[in-house]
Design a protein that fits this description.
Elements lengths: L3 H22 L3 H16 L5 H32 L9
Helix pairs in contact: 1-3, 2-3
């Protein structure tokens, strides 16, 4: 059974993740990718603050999801515009 403190911590984590996702949701692919690259570089350096590293990692995940989402949307649009492939008869 979860303690009150554990429930509060879980709620804070969920709220933080939602805020990050909302912040990243409107970013262009280029902006999200640029920030993701900077985040990866930051995480590659030695960090003294574990909490800061975890927050950077969480934001990096949200940025990666955003990039993937934008690429998926672009792929669907291109597929819709391209003529359907027809099997080649022998």
């Amino acid at each position: 059974m979860m303690t009150r403190e554990q429930r509060e911590q879980e709620h804070e984590e969920t709220t933080r993740e939602q805020k990050i996702d909302q912040d990243v949701a409107g970013m262009s692919y280029e902006a999200a990718l640029g920030e993701l690259e900077r985040t990866v570089q930051q995480l590659g350096r030695e960090q003294d603050d574990l909490a800061q590293s975890v927050r950077a990692f969480e934001r990096g995940l949200a940025l990666a999801r955003r990039c993937s989402q934008v690429l998926d949307q672009a792929e669907r649009r291109l597929s819709d515009m391209a003529p359907a492939e027809r099997p080649v008869s022998p």
